[in-house]
Amino acid sequence: MGQPSAVADQATEWSFTQRGLHALLYGYTRFYQGGRWERSSVPETGPAILACNHVSVLDPLFLVASNQRIISFLVAQEYYDKAWVRRLLEQTYSIPVRRDRRDVAALLQARRMLEDGRVLGIFPEGGINREETQKGLAWLVRESAAPVVPAHISGARQGRSDFSTWVHRQRPLLRYGVPLHFHPDAHADEVLGATMSAIATLA
């Protein structure tokens, strides 16, 4: 675990396309959306699970813009079915997930990513403004021993469509918490409870 990956991670390793995309997202989130964020608490190296509340399609954009490491997300399959969105997601090596069933293949791919010492972005609710947390997070923590970095976004909301959300200026605030380290034998309820509590305290 934690061995160097064959794909880009640190900003110094990014391709020209990845640098350009990051600059574009930074400009959009900082200047168009008027977003603010605290210094990221994602470790500079090694595996980490970045767990954030999910209030709109803007959330992953702010997480990417506020970090100098590639953040790879578990992303609903329907977004990957849109060709132009898929091309953007591929620049962060994100993983498509089927939401109509437990997607074991996606979880195994996410575990391999953490074993390679990378950062995985997860929205524990499993969707925008959902209340039921997903146990895949706890499984990944137990399997990888990666720390969980809690984050919270406020001041943003989902509009009638993704497009209307992107064009509406909302001035979101992103806060980061102290990384959580769990015992390998920690129960799923303990992992999920502590993670969601840490996210809530950042509100």
UniProtKB/TrEMBL annotation:
GO MF term list: 1-acylglycerol-3-phosphate O-acyltransferase activity
Keywords (A to Z) from UniProt: Acyltransferase, Transferase
Ranges of residues in domain Phospholipid/glycerol acyltransferase: 48-156
Acyltransferase recorded as keyword: yes
Pfam family, one: Acyltransferase
Protein name stated in the entry: Phospholipid/glycerol acyltransferase domain-containing protein
Swiss-Prot/TrEMBL GO biological process terms: phosphatidic acid biosynthetic process
Transmembrane stretches, start-end: none
